Amino acid sequence: MLTAEFLSRLQFAFVVSFHILFPAFSIGLASWLAFLEGVWLVKRTDLWRDLYFFWLKIFAVAFGMGVVSGIVMSFQFGTNWSGFSVVAGNVIGPLLNYEVLTAFFLEATFLGVMLFGWRKVSDRTHFFATCMVAIGTLISAFWIMSANSWMQTPTGYVIKDGVFYPDDWMKVILNPSFLVRLPHMVMGAFISTAMVIGGVSAWYLLKGRFADKSRATLKLALAFLAIVIPLQIVIGDMSGLEVREHQPAKLAAIEARWETRSDVPLTLFAWPDEQAETNHYAVDVPQLGSIILTHSLHGEVKGLKDFPADQRPPVKIPFFSFRIMVGLGFAMLGLALIGLWRWRRGTLEKPWYLRAWVAMIPSGFIAVLTGWWVAEVGRQPWVVYGVTRTSEAVTPLPVGSVLASLITFVVVYLGIFGAGLYYLVKLFRTGPVAGPIKQAAAHQTPARPLSVPQETIEG
Amino acid sequence: MDMATVLPVVWYFIIGFGVMMYVLLDGFVLGLGILTPFADDEHQRDHMMNTAAPIWDGNETWLVLGGAGLLAAFPRAYALVLSSLYLPILLMLIALIFRGVAFEFRFKAHTSRWLWGLAFHVGSVLAAFAQGVILGALVDGIAPLPPGQVHGAFDWFSPFAVMTGVAVVCGYALLGATWLILKTEGRVLQIAFDLTRPLMVAVIVFMLIVSASLPTLHSALMHRWFTGGNFLYLSPVPLLTAVCAVMLWRSVIHRREAQPFVYALGLFLLGFIGLVVGIWPNIVPPALSIWAAASPPSSQGFVLVGAAFLIPAVLAYTVYSYRVFRGKLAGDAGYH
Fold it and tell me: Is the dihedral of CA A100, A105, A107, A111 positive or negative?
């Protein structure tokens, strides 16, 4: 049972699931900060500056945790997936290399100016640094989604001696699933962040703190979500059509479809049974499956029985993860739509509604995680879809080594995550207090500015 | 000469450059982490860490470039080295995690401030040690394996690798001390001055021991150095090293505040060149050559086109950010 392959998969799932939360938050927060600072440059009111510095402190923690957990990722391919590195390194390596050169340096370097340069550079230069960080996060998303999408829908290559050789880089980068999966991920990051911004604002309103600032940011989050979540649902639907075309076995697992047939029902809930190749306790809605999955009343969907047993993904994880993701998506949409309606009627700040916001703070992140589980577990047993098996990609390490590393990662990450969460909660408790004001004489002294981004939090 | 011959050579130097940038830039940040116990109190530790707070993240990115560059340009070397050195790499990653989050958490902590200070120190020491062990194991040689096989979990272990681990801890500490001379004043400056010469002696001793042990290693790394008239052509490297050491010593005696850092960087650079010359034309001694490990010209060429523009751009805005934060940092004020 405890093979090196199983443990390596578990380890990769753990470290990447942990990691993705922070880039998702950073992608959203960086653009949010660029927005806040841009507004401040125009309006020059304390409200916007205070908000900028408040969210900057949150961003610093999220970004730091993303960096350290990201470095782990850049080594995993070699340590645990050396077969993959040898077979697909010619294609994946250059994509990751471009990510480092175009995004990581940009983010990391301008982050320093953003966090510590407030009194060292002009307002416009500081805003420029913020924009560079925001653009860096988006460029990073571009490359990593391209690399992952290529593993889902590989194109633009030839195979010699079992090794991938790039043949047409445009086809590699702009592979078939990339153009839907990139916006899906970026919008997922934006939505997750907006849920936190709105939820934290609602919490302050419940407590009667920072009312002016929180009212403004709650409305911003609300308006943003009301526009973006419907778009995200449309893109998600396009992603479904793409999966049906390129990864039919994944779609069959997501929907727990065993038989290939037309007039497919939509299974709202079931307990998929992989041994018996059937669903128990299924709650089906007739025809709806065909309508959603094929956009036609009688459309055909492939079933798992059409695929040899050794080419089928696990069913339960994609099936349930997908339902959680979609369920949360619609719940967030409901929250936003109710909010719009209440905003019009001037009853936005009813306690029950604000409490609902607070309760839903993590829903965007849960949707991001479950969405990735659908994508990655649903791709099994392949690491490069249809060509390279996960079992061929793994390093045949001694079981003890992988067990030791897995336990270490779990213990360390839970400790770090706990500490990070603790400091984030402390920052949220402190709230958007007055941000630092530039002093005219600051640049003349050798002493460094006491820029508040990281001052000690009392308590 | 065709592209498949030339490109791996170009990439050998690009990755060599990236690794060297990492060693120099994160070297001094890890180094000041190694030295934090020499501070009298938490205030001085703040002072030390503040000198690196705005730039450490960019510095560490060179390590990611080294990893991604190796995967892109020499995937077989990437797979062989990382899978063979599984446990040292794990140690390095975990240590870097603690070192990195300590930068964020320590300044936000109140009662647990000392704990994150400790995490910063121990993380820095272990990351430096692990990198030294990785270097030592690489220089000692990692035999290529057929697909489906992997070296044992502790095959990398040797007294030599442990020794290079300690050597890199001392070397980074030297870089860190000279960086603190450059960037601080008051008590921390004094501490840094006091530490520099003992550390330099340790580094020179380690350089001599490493050079003397090279002929005993599997990889026969010294062959290039001593075959034919090579030693004559290569003699500037040890000579310049000696000059650097003397100049460093004198600059500390004369209380120069910028020169020690420059000479410490010089020492590292020369040691690095010595190793690169020895390893060539292998990417993983003793048997994996840069051509055998290389990805095809279609991969190496594709990244090279971008790297030719992007690496200068990265260097330009890195210089810019160092300029923004140039000058001495007073003890009583930080960014925090």
Answer: positive
